[in-house]
Amino acid sequence: MAGSELLTVRPWLVIFGGILVHLSIGSYYSFGNMNPYITSYIRLRGDQPDITFGDTAWVYTLLVIGLGSAMFVGGYLGEKIGSRWTTLLGSLISSGGVALSYFTCHNLYYLMLTYGLMFGVGTGIAYVNPLTCAMRWLPSHRGMASGLVVAGFGAGSTIFTQVQTYFINPDDIAANVPSTAVDCIQTEMYFGEDAILDRIPNVFLLLGGVYAAMQIVGCLLITDPPENAMPVSTEEDPLIDKDLMAPCEYEDHYQMDTSLCLCRVKRWKINKQFSKQSLFGRSLSVKEALRTYLFPLLWITFLFMGQATVYLANMYKTFGQTFISSDHFLANVGTIASPMNAISRVFWGAVADRYSYKPTMLALGSLCSVLLMTYYFTSDMGRYAYAVWTPALFFSFGGNYSLWPFVTTSTFGPKHAAFLYGLLFTSQMLGGSVAALAQSQLTCAIGYGGLISLVAGLQVTSMILTLMYPDPPNRRERSKKEVQVDVRDRKAMAERDQGDSSPDASMQIDNDSGHEGRVESTHF
How many CB atoms lie under 10 A from the CB of residue 483? Predict the structure, then answer.
């Protein structure tokens, strides 16, 4: 079953549809490219001539808040009306918000509602269902499925950064209007050419139309798997060797959720280590998941880990403008960074499939921390160092968005994974607000170097929190161990289960078998 599911067409159509949707909503990563244009337009043509890049960062913050607040709504609606209709609803809200920004781009506060909140809410509703739908079609390859879909989200700005830049500034005119702020250690440069400013409102109409077309096609390809796609009984599931299983505590028959694990019951009952064993035992209800220590641990980890994404996606270009004058060069760096963001999601998802969440997240966090600690020095090393460090950073933090749904599903089970992931993603609402506040209030005081150092410190903190996550055995080693279980021990267990129907007897294992200890779970 694990191999045959990859050979059917339907899962790949669902994944392709999810990629199309995520390509369009993933263009929100291109806000860092749009920020200099938007800020320049509002200063020179709009209602607020004194705003800065840090002020415009609140548009991105509202986008992140909308995304985080609506994601669990998307998970809830997906359970009620299905993945296709939920994704279509979110898609139309997001593309509509972008198109409406044609009328609001002269005022920061109006733009925060359309290009910020409305775009973000639509993205949040549309985000999670293509992802979880793909994982349900390929339950034995969840990391790969989620990585492929969210790769579209990461790759969206590859396309649209170029569209934005070559539509608005085809002649590569440098920003030529310096900021007039006093007592600021950071000088900002704005675009003052009329030809550039004239094109900025029209780009929102162009983007909104293209997004809508891609989203409609993608939604037509997305469909939920049939109810019997993930059997819960080994008699119905050819993947499971019944000889390797013992009765689960929760049911009076052999039970298996193919997207999670099978339980080999030993002497201790599952509820003695409920929080840890729910990693592999079954799908938890929302209430059960919220009662574990793992939920707040993951929420805080996501909060700190996400700061690198929020800051860099918003400010990488304005930081580059402090020592690089070519607008096209900066756009090309963003274009290179975007596929690295996409590749990272597939790469880190595949690594998690092989080594599990914890070691993968520690490796990702270590790489991101080192790159952040040295990123500011690219201003001394030159434009090509900047062109290497920026895509490398996107490669590191982009993996968060395949590891986060992966660990949510693996920890709490697939049944309510979309809703629980949406709840966990609310951490980005607070994270986005903190990042915007820091950018608007601290950029002049401590400069880009100080802000980047703060983000690096939060990244290290998230790695410390990751060390507190339970440490499951390597999945491949565990599978080999199960396959090599002594046949005599299995037969003894089966004979005892048949000979004694009492619950206590079914929970015992012959001392000769050597299998003593607590509940163990096997993850496919």
Answer: 9
